[in-house]
Design a protein that fits this description.
There is one protein chain. This protein has one domain. The protein is about 70% helix and about 0% strand. The protein is built from 15 helices and no strands. Helix 2 packs antiparallel against helix 6 and helix 3 crosses helix 5. Bound molecules: ligand LTSJ6FE6 and adenine. Ligand LTSJ6FE6 binds next to helix 5, helix 6, helix 9, helix 10 and helix 13. Adenine binds next to helix 2 and helix 15.
């Protein structure tokens, strides 16, 4: 068994032993475990190193997943019990659960932001799945993403365009560079995942590559095309452009199908660390890619 598979098996045993949770909630926990174990991820925390981060390491992520996964069932149940509410009410009602879950994360990590974006995304995805199930609709990638998109209709306009506060990084970067960040991705129904990383992941799988290699190739495509606000917050637009161009160069050489694919990723990791770049939004989309591949 590879280090990746071994570490995942161990963490699943430790963290996903609460099998009272519904299957989608268990899959969300697995997705976060797979994301943090995937290595090497340029600039991010993984099994090799803490990337460009001084305030968190692999163990911080394990603690964070332990704390937030308990909440996943709540999002799903909310989706079921609130299935008939209109979209705006549905979104307004799920957010307090998201905020409580964020608080649990901060408490578990000593106030470090490990999964704020991940909580937002998985809260919405699990709420959407609960709602679809309650309404007797088919649960597949298209319907889940359409449901999240419907729930989030207007979120970019209401919270970013018409809002003059700049208290969060996302709000600031929208004003500065028109980047819609995590909200935009959710409102689009995870278009970057559906049109870029998921097809790459599935094609690689179809061609017989193992899960780790498929996810690394999907990650390269996310790095190349995702408008990651974390990269911009640390490195400005130049940081985002640098990350996208370097990932595209590796993809051009074949990415993980290149004999030295892993070495190229390790070199990119060193470059990101030198430049203090960390693609946290891309990390979330890797987890979402694997999660959606399960439906
Ligand atoms: C709606 C919120 C997400 C608001 O957050 P904010 O206004 O800050 O919005 P964004 O900048 O858009 O990003 C928030 C997080 O989303 C991830 N992200 C970034 N870009 C994208 C993208 N293009 N697509 C999807 N997701 C994206 C990212 O999260 C990950 O990175 C974080 C770790 O990064 P790190 O660099 O370590 O930490 P920082 O503290 O940011 O910086 P440093 O000091 O280290 O430099 C981690 O969170 C990952 O998950 C962005 O950070 C939302 O927060 C909100 O409203 N929450 C309330 C709860 C709620 O409503 N929930 C909804 C229902 S459940
Ligand atoms: N593995 C990771 N490293 C750093 N930031 C992240 N945000 C989500 N996953 C992350």
């Amino acid at each position: 068994m590879s280090d990746y598979s071994q570490q995942i098996a161990q963490l699943e045993l430790d963290l996903n032993s609460d099998n009272n949770q519904c299957i989608p909630a268990q899959l969300a926990t697995k997705a976060l475990i797979k994301e943090v174990c995937l290595s090497p991820k340029p600039g991010l925390v993984d099994m090799n190193n803490s990337g460009a981060h001084l305030d968190m390491d692999f163990q911080t992520f394990v603690q964070s997943i332990k704390a937030i996964s308990i909440w996943f069932e709540r999002f799903y149940q909310y989706g079921k019990t609130s299935a008939l509410q209109d979209n705006q009410q549905f979104l307004a009602g799920i957010r307090p659960i998201g905020i409580e879950c964020e608080q649990a994360m901060y408490q578990a990590t000593n106030q470090v932001n490990t999964h704020k974006g991940g909580i937002f995304a998985f809260g919405l995805l699990l709420g959407a799945i609960g709602r679809l199930e309650q309404l007797g609709l088919t649960i597949n990638t298209q319907n889940i993403c359409d449901e999240v998109s419907a729930i989030c209709q207007g979120i970019v306009t209401n919270e970013l365009k018409q809002n003059n506060t700049t208290s969060s990084i996302g709000e600031k970067l929208f004003k500065l560079h028109n980047l819609p960040g995590a909200r935009g991705e959710a409102e689009s129904g995870y278009i970057t995942v559906r049109t870029i990383s998921l097809p790459i992941y599935q094609t690689m799988k179809h061609n017989g590559y193992d899960e780790e290699t498929c996810l690394l190739q999907a990650m390269l495509h996310l790095l190349a095309y995702n408008q990651d606000t974390n990269l911009v917050s640390r490195g400005g637009l130049e940081g985002l452009t640098f990350a996208q161009q370097e990932a595209r160069k590796i993809i051009k050489q074949g990415g993980m199908t290149h004999a030295n694919g892993l070495e190229l990723l390790n070199q990119l990791d060193e470059e990101f660390i030198k430049r203090n770049l960390s693609p946290g939004g891309t990390a979330d989309l890797i987890a979402i890619t694997w999660f959606l591949s399960q439906f």
